[in-house]
Structures are given as structure tokens and as C-alpha cells.
Amino acid sequence: MKTDIEIKSTEELLSELGVMKTGHFVLTSGRHSSFYFEKFRILERPETTSVLCARMADIIKKKAGPKIDLVCGPATGGMILAFEVAKILRLGCVYLEKSESGFCLLRGMRIPIGAKTLIVDDVLTTGKSLDAAHKAIVEAGGSVVLKAVMIDRRKAKDSLDAVLALYTAQGEDYLPDQCPLCTADVPLVDPKTGREILRR
Ligand SMILES: [Zn+2]
Fold first, then answer.
1. Ligand 1 is an ion; residues with CB less than 5 A from it
2. Nearest one of 192, 43, 190 to 120, comparing CA atoms
3. Topology classification of domain 4-197
4. Residue 160 binned pLDDT confidence (cut-offs 50, 70, 90)
5. Distance 22 CA to ligand 1 centre (A)
6. Which of 12, 94, 146, 193 is the most buried (most CB within 10 A)?
7. pTM over 0.85
């Protein structure tokens, strides 16, 4: 029998947990947006996280079949999701940590030469983080066969480099000097700290 969580759609679960916040936020890219996905509203609920990762694993299996050797999770949220997806796929997992140039492997973790690697991450906004993870894996000797995210909030989703997403959101973001929310004097918030940022 399915649990209460399993019978709900991904959209229902994200909405129930208050994952999407609306307001005026500065994104990691520096752009401004009227909405923001706080992945930690998911990650602080391990049972829901597991259910959503099982759904990710299902779409990954359909797409990649047995072609994956290893799962890789970039810091921070990607580490937790990659762990769970790797567990379901019965594969090993490595974790990328933040470095000055992007991501790196620490603590003696290695990627076997030529290992067909799946990157699992939380929220895709600009693709910069996935690109940095891709670069780190290739530099370590692996190859990237697939990228999967829980939430794709990119504005343009027509990238040649396809990414699997469990949930897709469409929304605008703006360069700070072209942001209508700034023009309307809506308080700007750093979503990581929840604090208002004073603008000049
Ligand atoms: Zn703004």
C-alpha cells in the first residue's frame, strides 16, 4: 500500500512544504527573481526526499538504463539527493565540494578512469553549477552520461545539453538594473539568510 506521501504528486508535495517562496530575491547568479525554491524545505523531510528521489531514479532508469557506473552529487543539496538516488540505483556515489574554481573531490574520493557518471543536483537555475560539476568530473577522469535535477527553473530550457528534471517551473529573472521589483521598491531578500539586502 502506498503511503500518504507516495500518493501525492510532486507539485502537491512541493507546495505543501512551502518550497517555492514568492517575493524579491537575489539568486546565486546575481540576477533578481520574484520566486525562489528553497530546497531545504524538501531536504529537512527525509521521507519526502526519499519519495522524490525514487521518482527521479525512475526517470533516470528509463533514460539511461544500465549505462551509469557512478553517481555524483555536488555540494550542498546535490550530495543528499545523489546519495539517495545512488542507493536506489545500487551504485556508488562521490561528492563534489565547493572550491575557488568551482568543485573538487576531497577526502581521497576518486572517480575511476572513464566511469560513466550521473550528476544529481537539486535546483537548476542557470546551469553554471552543473557545468562546474561536469568539468570537475571530466578533470578527475570520468565522463558525464546524464544530468538530473529535482527542479528545473531555467528560463530557457532549449539547451543542447539536456537535463532530466522531476519538476519544471517557468518564471522570469532579471538583471539587477532591469528588475521591475527593484523599480517598485519591493524589499530585496537574500534567500540563504532570509535577510533584506539594502540597495544603493
Ligand atoms: Zn530586483
1. 32, 179, 181-182
2. 43
3. Rossmann fold (3.40.50)
4. very low
5. 13
6. 94
7. yes
